[in-house]
Design goal:
single chain, mainly alpha, 357 residues
Length: 357
C-alpha cells in the first residue's frame, strides 16, 4: 500500500495535471459515499429481518434470494414515483429541505477515520467539526415543515426540532467529557488514547476503552442518539397515529426517500462515532486478535450498536412527547453536568487514582 499510493499520484498527475488534487479528492469521496449508501440501503433490510426475528415472524423474503433485492426494489419504486409539490408551498425551500437534511449525514463522514491516518480529512478539530455539521440537520426539518404550508407538517417540524435540540445538548456534554479525558479533538488521537492503560498493557485493551470509566456517558450518548435520529421509542415526530408523518407528510418519491435515508445514515454515523469515542475504534479487544484488520473491528462495533437501535425499536412502546422532553432536560442534561464535574475532579487525583494520567 505504501508503494501503491505514490504510483497512483504519479500517474494521476501525468493524466490530469493541475486538476489531479481535485480528481483525487473526488475519488476518495466516492470511495466513502458509495459503500455508505449501500450500507444505508441494506440497513433497511437488516432492520426488517431483525425485527421479524425478534417478533417471531418473517422479514422481507420475496424479492430475490432471502429478500436481498428488496432495497433495490424499494429504491426503484421511489425513483419512479412522482414528486408532488403542494400548490401553495414555497417551492424553493420545499426542494432544499430534503437536501439540507441528508447533507450533514454525508459531510460528517469526511472526518471519520477508518484506521490510523485513514480519513478524507484528518483534521485536529474533527470532534468539533462533527458537532457543528450534524447540528445543521435541524434546519432541514424546520424548513420542510414551514415550506409545506401545512399545519400538520409545521407542528411535526416544531416537535422534531425541539426534540433534536434537546438531545443534542446531552450528546454535546458527552463529547466534551470524552474530549477532557482524551486531551484532543482529533478522532484518531482519541482512539489512540484508548490503547493505553493497565488493560491494554496486559493484552486486554477492551478494559482501557472509554466505555468502562465513562459507562454512564456511553449509555446517555447511545440513548440520546436514538432520540436524536427520531427512532422508536422516541419517534413521536412521525407517530402516524398522532400527527401523520410529521414534517415529511407532504413529501413523496425521492424527496421523501432523502428524509428516510438521512435517518438511517445518521444511525450509522452515531454508531461509528460511539465506536470511535467509547469502544476503541479500530483496535481489537484482546491482543491475540490483532491480526484482524482494524476496519473490520470498527465495522463490527458499528454493526452491534446499529443493531441495538433496531432491538430497542422492537422491544419498547412509544414514549409520550412530554416524557421525551422530561428525560432530556430533567435527567440526561443534569446527569451529564454532574458527571462532567466528577470526571474533572477525578482527573485531578494523584497518579495511582487518575487512570488518564
Amino acid at each position: 500500500m505504501d508503494q501503491l499510493l505514490p504510483n497512483i499520484h504519479l500517474y494521476g498527475q501525468a493524466w490530469f495535471g493541475i486538476l489531479w488534487p481535485i480528481v483525487w479528492s473526488l475519488v476518495k469521496i466516492i470511495l466513502v459515499v458509495a459503500p455508505l449508501m449501500g450500507c444505508v440501503a441494506y440497513l433497511t433490510l437488516w432492520e426488517r429481518k431483525a425485527i421479524g426475528f425478534i417478533q417471531i415472524r418473517h422479514g422481507a423474503n420475496r424479492v430475490g434470494y432471502f429478500g436481498l433485492l428488496q432495497p433495490i426494489a424499494d429504491g426503484v419504486k421511489l425513483l419512479l414515483k412522482e414528486i408532488v409539490v403542494p400548490a401553495r408551498a414555497n417551492k424553493a425551500l420545499f426542494v432544499i429541505a430534503p437536501v439540507m437534511t441528508i447533507m450533514p449525514s454525508l459531510v460528517a463522514w469526511s472526518v471519520i477515520p477508518f484506521g490510523p491516518e485513514v480519513a478524507l480529512a484528518n483534521i485536529d478539530a474533527g470532534l468539533l467539526f462533527l458537532m457543528a455539521i450534524t447540528s445543521m440537520e435541524v434546519y432541514g426539518v424546520i424548513i420542510a415543515g414551514w415550506a409545506s404550508n401545512s399545519k400538520y407538517a409545521f407542528l411535526g417540524a416544531m416537535r422534531a426540532s425541539a426534540q433534536m435540540v434537546s438531545y443534542e445538548i446531552a450528546m454535546g456534554f458527552a463529547l466534551v467529557i470524552v474530549l477532557m479525558v482524551s486531551g484532543s479533538l482529533n478522532l484518531s488521537d482519541i482512539v489512540a488514547a484508548q490503547s493505553k492503560g493497565f488493560g491494554a498493557s496486559h493484552g486486554f485493551a477492551m478494559f482501557s476503552w472509554n466505555w468502562l470509566p465513562l459507562l454512564p456517558v456511553f449509555v446517555v450518548y447511545v440513548i440520546s442518539g436514538i432520540a436524536e435520529t427520531n427512532r422508536h421509542p422516541f419517534d413521536v415526530v412521525e407517530g402516524e397515529s398522532e400527527i401523520v408523518a410529521g414534517h415529511m407528510v407532504e413529501y413523496s418519491g425521492m424527496s421523501f426517500a432523502m428524509f428516510y435515508l438521512s435517518e438511517y445514515a445518521n444511525m450509522i454515523l452515531i454508531s461509528i462515532i460511539a465506536s470511535l469515542l467509547f469502544l476503541g475504534g479500530w483496535a481489537s479487544p484482546v491482543s491475540f486478535l490483532d491480526w484482524i484488520p482494524g476496519w473490520i473491528w470498527l465495522g463490527m462495533k458499528t454493526f452491534v450498536i446499529v443493531t441495538l437501535f433496531i432491538w430497542v425499536r422492537a422491544s419498547f412502546p412509544r414514549y409520550r412527547y412530554d416524557q421525551i422532553m422530561r428525560l432530556g432536560w430533567k435527567v440526561f442534561i443534569p446527569l451529564m453536568l454532574a458527571y462532567l464535574l466528577i470526571v474533572a475532579a477525578w482527573m485531578q487525583l494523584p497518579t495511582p487514582w487518575n487512570i488518564w494520567n
